[in-house]
Amino acid sequence: MQSLGDALGLALSLVLSGDADLLEIVALSLQVSLTATFIACLIGLPIGALVAIGRFRGRGAVLIVMNALMGLPPVVVGLLVYLHLSRSGPLGFLGLLYTPTAMIIAQTILIAPIVAALSRQVLEDLHGEYAEQFRSLCLTRLQTVQALLWDARYSLLTVGLAGFGRAVAEVGAVIIVGGNIDHLTRVMTTAIALETSKGDLALALALGIVLLVIALGVNAAVQSVRMTATRQAYV
Amino acid sequence: MFEAPVIPEAQALPGNKPMPLTVRGLMLELGGARVLHDLNLDLGPAGCTMIMGANGAGKSLLLKLLHGLMAPTAGTIEWAGTPAAQATKQQALVFQKPVLLRRSVAANVDFVLKARGKNRSKRDALLDHVGLAHKAKQPARLLSGGEAQRLALARALATDPDVLFLDEPTASLDPASVLAIEGIVSEAKARGTRVIFVTHDMGQAQRMADDVVFLHGGHVIEHSPADTFFPKPQTQAARDYLQGRIIV
């Protein structure tokens, strides 16, 4: 068992030397989580916008379900995706289990509700401001949704960031559907779990450092964009 | 029960698209309370009608009903025989507090032109018309109050409206901005746009109005030509209002 100080030192040397295994794991993590975030935004933003501007029977129930889905347990999502993608499952013929695609599917299912629920709130507030003007202009529903999504773009960046944060830090679902296979489906969180259980704290810590740096970097980038937008009165 | 007087139709200017308004038995209830009572109103096809009255009289609600943004509890509103809800697209409304999109000045006008299927080449001429051509690339939300209202007016005019509604568009603006807005509205009126204007500004009403609809407690209690209303209001409530007395 390494001491924390030794592990930290080794971790830093791994990060600074650009260890190939480490870079591979980081790259796959980013590929999976960014793709999942992009797809979740494609699904979640229009749903959020439609619920934000729609007034229909059962809307209250839809809101409760949307908000509840934000807390989906990753292992449950992982299990459900596993059941669907396993050889005996309805989508088993696709042969996607233990591939990065399966991990993307699981993460998308996890974060699409987050994107939908958070964007719904952002867009509903904005629609409250624009609604009469838009009715006066006789905009169609599609035009309204497009205008709201564009005008709320900087606020929605934060929503996307929240989704990415959840995706990149998630371990339960991807370890079930990805299997944590070396050089194929090993991502930062699953590698940290594995290396910790093996006692190789250096690699686990190195990955943890990278994970934190990525989280900080993405947050800083989005905050910078928002501050610029605020200065220019686009928020 | 107040009986709203009917004034003869004003003469439409040559080239005007005549937009006479007929309101019959208009009633509006909000939250169980009746806020507009059995309104009957006939407006001519052209000119500028001022809707006046104390706060809470129902002016803005009447404007939204006439524009088709709200549905009345009872009664009918027809613009040249077309129900108000179906005439909205031929009309435009400028709100007291302009609702500007989080975009540039030019993009605000482009948005309306695109939404209405109009040629975007009109944009520069519209911005020039309202004196904002030099701020076309600036974020709309950085405009001053007067500039923002002029942009809202440019956006409204981008739709080529037959009827232009203005809900206290110059409230809290400085005198120069007020005159600029009035100039733009007067030009629109001269080109044949029917103008329905809500204001508390007596000077503005006297400068702009062809006729005045006076609301009190949700009733139209007076409707007369401007040159009659201001010197000789027919009701005590209108006299009190014009003299700045508190109306109960």
Structure description:
The complex is a heterodimer of chains A (235) and B (248). Chain A has helices at 4-17, 20-53, 59-69, 74-85, 100-136, 141-151, 153-168, 172-178, 188-198, 201-231. Chain A is mainly alpha-helical and 235 residues long. Chain A has one domain (25-200): Orthogonal Bundle (MetI-like fold). Chain A is globular and about 65 Å long. The mean pLDDT of chain A is 92. With 248 residues, chain B is of the alpha/beta class. Chain B has one domain (17-242): Rossmann fold, CATH 3.40.50. Chain B has nine helices and ten strands. In chain B, helix 3 packs across helix 4 (122-129), helix 3 runs parallel beside helix 5 (145-157) and helix 5 runs parallel beside helix 6 (175-190). The longest helix of chain B is centred in the last third of the chain and has 16 residues, at 175-190. Chains A and B meet through helix 5 and helix 6 of A and strand 6 and helix 3 of B.
- The CATH class designation of chain B is Alpha Beta
Question: What is the approximate shape of chain B?
Answer: globular
Give the domain tally of chain B: 1
What is the CATH top level name of chain A? Mainly Alpha
Biggest β-sheet description of chain B: 6 strands, mixed
Largest interface: A-B, 18 and 22 residues
What is the level-2 CATH architecture name of chain B? 3-Layer(aba) Sandwich
Identify the overall geometry of chain A.
Answer: globular
Low-confidence stretches of chain B: 1-16
Helix-strand topology string of chain A = HHHHHHHHHH
